[in-house]
Amino acid sequence: MIPYLILLTIIPTAACALKPQSNRRNKRIYVFFISVCFFILAAFRAVTIGVDTRQFAGAYQSIASDGTLDFDKYRYEHGFVVLCFLLSRLTSNYQLLLIVVALFLTIGTGLFFYYFSKDVSMSFFLFVTLNVFFSYLNTMRQALASVFVIIAFYFFKKDRKILALVFVLLAPMFHQTAWLFVLMFPIMLRRFTKRTFLGYAACTVLLFCLSGQVTQFIAFVMGKDEFYDPNHSGSNYYGALIIFLFYTVIALTCLYLIRKKLKQGGDPNAAFFAHALMMWVLFAALGVKVEVLSRFGGYYALFIVALIPSALGLKDKRGQMIVKYGLCVVSLLYFMIICMCRPEWFGTVPYTFDFANTQQMFHSLMSVGV
Questions:
Q1: What's this model's pTM, rounded to 2 decimal places?
Q2: Domain boundaries of the chain, sorted by first residue
Q3: Cα-Cα-Cα-Cα dihedral of 315, 317, 320, 321, to 10°?
Q4: Residues 43-73, buried b or exposed e (16+ Cβ, 10 A)?
Q5: How do residues 237-262 score in pLDDT, each as one tens digit?
Q6: DSSP-assigned states of every residue in 174-239
Q7: Among residues 109, 209, 204, 112, which one has the least CA distance to residue 157?
Q8: Helices marked H in 117-139
């Protein structure tokens, strides 16, 4: 856990030194520096870091040994299989996959925070303490899909619809669940009112009661009956309940802070943020009964982490600082409790570097003239 604590120390320390909010140049330097720190942890980790990492490494090596693109042989989406195939032409060492994916994820996340966060240091801090980074290290395919989603959102906001469409179509090629975000996106562009809030609350209760049927429907549509098993993590009921309650407190706090912006209706980012919060809570609620459904909330987590600082834009600067540091402290405690009491949830604690395998990977690359 020490590397994560060092990272959580570097984030605010570097912010105090560089003052990223003072000008764009300092902000760029800060985002680049912190992104490099995240890249090091994600790229040079051992195969044991992340519950699902080992299976992805195994799939990579299997594709490397096959030497052909056989989509029927693997249960993964075509985009991920193609990525593994192309990289495996260079080396059969799975570390290259971890490095390339880490590079893409850190660049995408860093740029997203740079353009959309009003306080990049806080966003990076919450990126760790709300376990979004841990999810990245665990669910590689969905993490890639999530980054394609945020890139599509960036181009959408820049009114570059064709490029947005390209990345929207790329996302499901790495994880089919990305279609859910795509389908829900038009709803998230609408105004957020009290009626909207009540609608989300009613849907959350209804879908929670019907979570078994929801799971069966998703399994039928996606053809992954084993993966979407209603009994996947029944033993984690109370842990998932704690996560749901924690997310709910954060969501309600943020909704309260942006209530005036929502009432005025002139800030589309505030409405989008409110929708993202409620979707985040909805899937956390479903995760109480069927853990795997909580992963759908991962598509909204990045938006929440990036836009939370906007919710703290209070006129009362003293009150703003109290809420900001209060949220960071509470999220840090939440992070520490999970690391110490439930390390098996993400499989990222204790952390281990694998420089030996990385060295072997570079030797194999040089042997083929790369």
A1: 0.90
A2: 1-175+349-370, 179-313
A3: 170
A4: bbbbbebbbebeebbebbbebbeeeeeeeee
A5: 677 888 899 999 999 999 998 888 88
A6: T-TTHHHHHHHHHHHTS---HHHHHHHHHHHHHHHHTHHHHHHHHHHHHT-TTTT-TTTTGGGHHH
A7: 112
A8: 120-129, 132-138
